Amino acid sequence: MPPVVKDISTREKLLEIGAQAIAEKSFNSCGLAEILKRAGVPKGSFYHYFASKEDFGVALIEKDIQEYMELLRPILSDRRRSPLARLRAVFELSRDECKNHGAARRCLIPKLALETAQLSETVHAAVKCAYDQWSALLARVIREAQAAGEIGRTQDPDRLANVLVMLWEGATIRMQIDRSLQPVDDFLAFVFDSLLNERG
């Protein structure tokens, strides 16, 4: 039915434009007026979909992590590859995204993570939940790699997954500072040629 299509289209447009604007600036410095102007959507329509800017922020984060998880699942469930090869493929995919969009690109969730002290508790919780989902997905594959003898069993899978996420986020921040892919290439080399090769 036309009204439903219009509703979905307008909401998605707001989320798309909002993600771009916030990634360019920050959540706190990007006002609703700017987002609405870019999207060509009246203020009343915004509040038809979102109760507040915080509610909008949570929807942005949930959409972003859902799309990322959907992108990763086919890679992580590909049984033609070993668990460790699948784990590496996740980060190689992200590395390729950085290359294709430029080393200075800014992703939404990492951008919000840097603002965490200034975010409302609701938005902060959504950012934490996004990282927890990513870590949990990685931990599952790490367990498979340990069972296959590719990663040492002395490592706790959940802690190791969290460390990989933290190292990756640090590498992408440094990538933006240096405007070079070298930090993420160094991450891949260190993690997969050194850290995860220690199978004690």
Mean pLDDT: 87
The portion of residues assigned to helices is: over 70%
Q: Which residues form runs of ≥5 with pLDDT under 50?
A: 1-6
CATH topology of the largest domain: Tetracycline Repressor, domain 2
Strand/helix succession: HHHHHHHHH
Structure characterization notes:
The protein folds into 2 domains: 1-49, Homeodomain-like (Arc Repressor Mutant, subunit A, Orthogonal Bundle), CATH 1.10.10.60; 53-197, Tetracycline Repressor, domain 2, CATH 1.10.357.10. α7 crosses α8 and α8 (157-178) runs antiparallel to α9 (182-193). It has helices at 2-24, 32-39, 43-49, 53-76, 83-101, 108-114, 121-147, 157-178, 182-193. It contains 9 helices and no strands.
What is this structure, in a nutshell?
By secondary structure, the protein is mostly helical. It contains 9 helices and no strands.
Q: Which terms summarize this structure?
A:
mainly alpha; Arc Repressor Mutant, subunit A; Tetracycline Repressor, domain 2; 9 helices; elongated; disordered N terminus
Topology:
Layout lengths: L1 H23 L7 H8 L3 H7 L3 H24 L6 H19 L6 H7 L6 H27 L9 H22 L3 H12 L7
